[in-house]
Amino acid sequence: MLRLLENKVPQTGNNAKPWYKQFWPWLLMAGPIFVVIASVSMFFVAKFSMTDLVTDDYYKDGKHIDIQLHRDEEASKRRIQAQVLISPDMNAAKVFVSGDFDRKQPLKLLLMHPARKVDDQTVTLKAVSPEGAAKAEYDAVFKPLPNANHWYVRLEDGTGVWRVENKWLVSQGNAVSLTPPDKLFNGAASSAK
Q1: Is residue 186 part of a domain?
Q2: Is 169 part of a structural domain of the chain?
């Protein structure tokens, strides 16, 4: 009978498992370990996929806003309008420009990605229309545009006197009309009367 009691008495000391062989400590440590790994991986994702949406120098940008408004007003006074037809491959465009501008000055077409500055492109246009045509015609060739829901398209003269721009919604086709802002255009029309 004494032997039966010895077998039923729980063993302590030498037969107990060490903590690292137990299930519960590992289960309790799994949550914090997972959070540390996820935090480190998110840090590297954020570091290597930064966007340029926030500027570092607000004062400098504020001064440029006033300069840009003068360029919009000048385009409105000159009644400059443009039509940009982008190829289906999104690597070339035809640009038709009307209004009072110096056709001998080079024109630049800017294609600006809404979030990634690295995808922005500036192209100097090549004139293809004969002199005396009602609308000046230009060709533009650029690197294929990456996929985006929309782009900002701007046309400006090489000297920085005027500009016209608009938002291009890719889903609505490959044609973009560039005009000065409506407020400026209406104001110039009423002052011309």
Answers
A1: yes
A2: yes
Evaluate whether residue 44 is within a structural domain: no
pLDDT in tens, 126-178: 988 777 777 889 999 999 999 889 999 999 998 888 999 999 999 999 999 99
pTM of the model: 0.63
Domain residues for the domain of 165 are 80-192
Instruction: Decide if 55 is inside a domain.
Output: no
Q: Kind of pairing, strands 126-127 and 81-86?
A: unpaired
Q: How far apart are CA 138 and CA 180, in angstroms?
A: 19
Which CATH number covers residue 101? 2.60.40.10
d(CA 97, CA 99) in angstroms, rounded, equals 7
Identity of residue 109: L
From 78, 86, 85, 84, select the one nearest 105 (Cα to Cα): 78
Tens digit of pLDDT for each residue in 121-137?
999 999 887 777 778 89
Dump pLDDT digits (tens) for 41-92. Answer: 999 998 887 666 656 665 555 555 566 788 889 889 999 999 999 999 999 9
Indicate the number of domains in the chain. Answer: 1
